[in-house]
Amino acid sequence: MALSHIASSSSRSKNLLKPIAAVLSCTPSLRRPISTSSDSTTLTIETSVPFTAHNCEAPSRSVETTPKELLSFFHDMALMRRMEIAADSLYKAKLIRGFCHLYDGQEAVAVGMEAAITKKDSIITAYRDHCTFIGRGGTLLEVFSELMGRQDGCSRGKGGSMHFYKKESGFYGGHGIVGAQIPLGCGLAFAQKYKKDETVTFALYGDGAANQGQLFEALNIAALWDLPAILVCENNHYGMGTAEWRAAKSPAYYKRGDYVPGLKVDGMDVLAVKQVCKFAKEHALKNGPLILEMDTYRYHGHSMSDPGSTYRTRDEISGVRQERDPIERVRKLILAHDLATEKELKDTEKELRKEVDEAIAKAKESPMPDPSELFTNIYVKGLGAESFGADRKEVRVVLP
């Protein structure tokens, strides 16, 4: 029995690696230099692998894009990658404390999803939330300040790595309790349907959270009420240090909804993510909830306390980097269509490195929150407080 599991584990590792050459399968297009990156010339590119559907029709593999969009994909994913690598260094220097879960390798999910929706749509996710926050319009200064517990952070330095938030852009957080964001996301979708504003909610969770009972409870009520909720399983194949095949009898997460349609997509292909998220939004507005399984991969461990190499081989990690890296895929597309030169792309990466370094320097200058900030956003204002205890020195809020 053990030998059969080892063999199946080996085959699954091989399945993580798919040829990057497939990304370059596309229709002929005009050659455009980077100077015309604002050009709206339409390029039609085929996704790396087909979509796999459950109880629905799969969207077309032919994705329409533009030179401007491809260059923006490269810029945004490279920025996220550099930001997460810098966070790694800050954590090791003990400038970031507590929990810290990095997203490098999974950037195509955040960027592709954002390309298919608007800021009026809502996103809620787990604790691997830095890049989703940037995608929703957050700034590097807010990111690094929050990570270092500084006043200029998006949660005023109180939330840390796991609790980024940007309500005005429809980002309802990073959440630290496994799976807890899923029913909250369905609640957001209920509000959207109630208000009839034609928007949807994407509730993201990992393969480790896919076995949570609250997922199925929330999905049941979402399906009963035809809520515009899209449940997105970011399957990076390891829940903490446990491989998916050891934790799930059925790791086909897109089928987990049974009576709810589902789609599996290559989450390392930003154009495929864009295409499936556009399809999912249209479906959810007309028919109710949908499950998306993003087949992706994290390069770091589960968190900064996890080296990430005790339960998987270094060859597996380097193999995914070489064959499926989302940034390299877009780089190859840009070069294949003469949208920029290799030097211009490297110059862009140098500028992004400088931008990240400047943001870190500013974040270090940001003051620590005032001690009084600990008591804000906890109790409703105006309710007062009462003293209690033997010495009457303990204080508690007066509830209405």
TrEMBL record:
It comes from the Eukaryota. Residues 303-322 are annotated as: Disordered. Residues 76-371 form the Dehydrogenase E1 component domain. Keywords: Oxidoreductase, Pyruvate, Thiamine pyrophosphate. Its EC number is 1.2.4.1. Its cofactor is thiamine diphosphate. Gene3D superfamilies: 3.40.50.970. InterPro entries: DH_E1, PDH_E1_Alpha_Subunit, Pyrv_DH_E1_asu_subgrp-y, THDP-binding. It catalyses: N(6)-[(R)-lipoyl]-L-lysyl-[protein] + pyruvate + H(+) = N(6)-[(R)-S(8)-acetyldihydrolipoyl]-L-lysyl-[protein] + CO2. Transmembrane segments: none annotated. Residues 312-322 have a biased composition (Basic and acidic residues). PANTHER family: PYRUVATE DEHYDROGENASE E1 COMPONENT SUBUNIT ALPHA, PYRUVATE DEHYDROGENASE E1 COMPONENT, ALPHA SUBUNIT BACTERIAL AND ORGANELLAR. Tetramer of 2 alpha and 2 beta subunits. The pyruvate dehydrogenase complex catalyzes the overall conversion of pyruvate to acetyl-CoA and CO(2). It contains multiple copies of three enzymatic components: pyruvate dehydrogenase (E1), dihydrolipoamide acetyltransferase (E2) and lipoamide dehydrogenase (E3). This is Pyruvate dehydrogenase E1 component subunit alpha.
